[in-house]
Design a protein that fits this description.
Blueprint: E1 5-12, E2 19-20, H1 26-31, H2 34-46, E3 51-58, E4 80-81, E5 88-89, H3 92-116, H4 119-143, H5 150-156, E6 160-163, H6 169-181, E7 187-191, H7 198-206, E8 210-215, H8 221-225, E9 228-231, H9 232-237, H10 239-260, H11 266-292
Parallel strand pairs: 1-3, 1-7, 3-6, 7-8, 8-9
Antiparallel strand pairs: 1-2, 4-5
Helix pairs in contact: 2-10, 3-4, 6-7
Length: about 300
Amino acid sequence: MKNPCLLLLLLRHGRGRGRVLGPELEAPTTTLPLRDVAVRLHLAASSFGPLRLSLAFASPRSLLPSPSPSPSPSPASSPSPCRVCDRNFFVRAKLLRHFAEIHEPEHAKRLRRLASARGARRVRLAAALAPKLARFEKAARDLGAAPRGPADELRRAGVTIRAVEGAPRRAIRDRAVGAMDEGILACVVLVSDDSGLAEVLGEARRRRLRTVVVGDEAEGPLRRSADVGFRWAEVVSGKARAAAPAMVGRWRDREMLKRLEWSFNEDEDEIESEGFEWDSEEEEEEEEGGRENGRPPWWELD
């Protein structure tokens, strides 16, 4: 059975649409929807093992929907009601922002409560929350056709979003080390071209974990520090997913050979040889003593 792996992404706020880690990754996220990019990343990462955790670190601005291309959107003649709280909005962008900032966190909190409940309490809680969950899902479907922010697209792909202020390197390292301390990971997949995150890969290598880097640079500090690296084109085309099983097999064979590796210890070999020669000399003395006393050798029967 394959070992679990951890997928780490960094979401930054770019021009128009958000992008995954760095200006050089803007092209893949504009040619494909960000949700499709995240799904293909999940498929590639899961080829190295069951995906235990998928995290994206984003600035607070990236959590909001992308602004409208028109500088001053005109208000609609008829209001658009929020299907959750029945509040009316004349500008659709404000409705999307209201839904993302208020109702989505509330929905996530309800799901966490439901996931942590057990037994009869879970049954009662599911019955109590069913109307609110159904109402949220219907409202989300009604808003699904509208353009959404990059963080929303990643959430729809199953990625957990973490809001961080300033440089996210420390947050990424702390969360990655925390997951490593749990002792359930065997592979770390880092989506980055930021050389400052090489410390995360170094910590994983010290713990004898496999490391995979996905980025747009053919060569770089992260590529040199990782066991294997892929470019975005290889992830999008599916080549990374197809090549992963063979790499996992080579890693497994290499670990098996290390366990079976025999190392020669000259001191131990000399001790064993000396002990064997001493036993042989003692047996020869016993045989010679037996002949001198006129007794037959011990191996001859009476």
